[in-house]
Structures are given as C-alpha cells and as structure tokens.
Amino acid sequence: MNEENEWDHKILAQVKEGPADCIRMAEVRAVLKKMKRHKAPGLSGLEAEMIQATGDIGTQWILDLCSGIVKEGNIPEDWKSSVVLPIYKGKGDPMECGSYREIKLLEHATKVIERIFEHRIRQQIEIDDMQFGFTKGKGITDAILWQDRCRRILELKVRNSILVLWIWRKLLIGCQEK
User: What is the DSSP string of 101-168?
Assistant: First the structure.
C-alpha cells in the first residue's frame, strides 16, 4: 500500500535563500492568542496561559528566545526531550499495550516557534488539492474515504457498462433471429 510516486524534480516555487527573517512581536502575539488553553505542558511545566498572563513581558521573553534560536540556528537541548504518556483508548484489554495510544507533551515555547515557522512556510508554498495529511480538513482518513468512494463509483460504472453490453447483446441476438 505504501508506494513511492515518481517525482520529476521540478520545483514550481521560488527558492528563497539567505538568513531567516527576524521573528516579529506581532507573530508571537498572534500565535500565543491562538494557542489552546488547558493543555498539558512539557518538562518545564511552562503553560501557554502562564506566558499569556505575563502580557508583554512574557511575549518579549518568547520573542527573544525565538530570535536567538533563529540567529544561532540551534534548538535548546531541553526542547529536544519530551514526555510520552500512554492514554487508554477506552476499548480493549487495559492490560494490553495495543489498547493505548501515546501522546507527546512538548514545551509550549517550542510550539510557538513551530507555529511561526509553519505559518511562514505555508505563506510561501502552494499546496496541491491532492495533498492529504498535514492539511486542515484533509487528513489521511479523508484520503482513504475519497479513494474508496472513487473505487465504488468506478465499480458501479463498470457494472452498468457490463449491463448495457449485455442488453445490447440480447437485442442484437434478438434482431439476428428475426
């Protein structure tokens, strides 16, 4: 099922080279404003609500942190670690590992810079309509359902074509007998 598609190595987007643009206060504010509340924090225990509650001081601190990362090109070591928690799916034997899914608790400050970069990248690229996964409203499940629907439509058309051919055959045989 996993199949590598051929790629012609043509890039339609403009290649942008050089140093990354500085992260702006407005970008940090916009990301912090959109962050969901009451989410579990990473190892530091720092939650988005804490940063938001500090106002401009917390926003400036995140801006300085993100700007330092962009300038140096290095992610802090403690951001490379996370907490992985098993969550019971609610079905199956609780003693079986397969009855659990894992969630990874990331630093909320990490999420800020990730979302800023994601927003910047999405502004510069054009995503094809056939892209599923990592696209809002078009997950992998949607692709599977879409593919299944296409398959069913094709099967129906084939069945109808066979039925039409069978009717034509009967009509032709009937005409030849007369």
Answer: EEEEE--HHHHHHHHHHHHHHHHH----TT--SSSTT--HHHHHHHHHHHHHHHHHHHHHHHHHHHHH
Pair (46, 102) in one structural domain: yes
Distances (CA, A) of 116 to 22, 123, 165, 177: 11, 11, 58, 77
The answer to pTM > 0.85 is no
Same domain, 33 and 78: yes
51-94 residue pLDDT tens: 889 999 999 999 999 899 888 888 888 888 888 899 999 999 99
- Both 34 and 99 in one domain: the answer is yes
Q: Which residues contact 102 (CB under 8 A, 6 or more apart)?
A: 84, 85, 86, 87
**Domain contains 170:** yes
Minimum mean pLDDT range among 96-100, 120-124, 148-152: 120-124
